[in-house]
Amino acid sequence: MAYLTFEEYQALGSIADDLTEDKFNKSEAAAESLFDIATKSFYRMNDLESDAKWRKDLFKHALAQQVNFSNYTGLTTPYEVSQSSVQRVSIGRTTVEGGDAAKSTVGRLGIYGVAYTLLAQTGLMYRGVSSCY
Predict the structure, then answer these.
(1) Do residues 76 and 29 make contact, with C-beta atoms less than 8 angstroms apart?
(2) Would you tell me the crossing angle of helices 113-121 and 53-73 to the nearest 10 degrees?
(3) Model pLDDT, residue 76
(4) Number of domains present in the structure of the chain
(5) Are strands 111-112 and 88-91 parallel, antiparallel or unpaired?
(6) Residue 3 falls within a domain, yes or no?
(7) Cα separation of 117 and 104, whole Å?
(8) Does residue 93 form part of some domain?
(9) Structural domain range at position 76
(10) Beta partners for 133?
């Protein structure tokens, strides 16, 4: 089951004019894979829908931002991001001009910076130790 449905994506209000449901499904599936890597597959082992509303909402919003990034750039995998360059990309109020798409992503995963920031707020990427006794 997809983490984010097309209907949920549309309800978030930040959809691209030219994004069809078929294109959305392809971008969402690629984004899921990236997010599973970043979160160590947390939602493969835990139910997303029964999680805390604030975390679920942040996660889905981050996923929608990654779908937007993939739709606008045409890039879905970390390899594609590292090998490409973009002239101009606007997603919401964020614009990247010139240079390569890798500059608008974080790390080697190819996750769009805004999506990464939202995902980080969920706490699902925390790798530290809570206490040492």
Answers:
(1) no
(2) 170
(3) 72
(4) 1
(5) unpaired
(6) no
(7) 12
(8) yes
(9) 19-121
(10) none
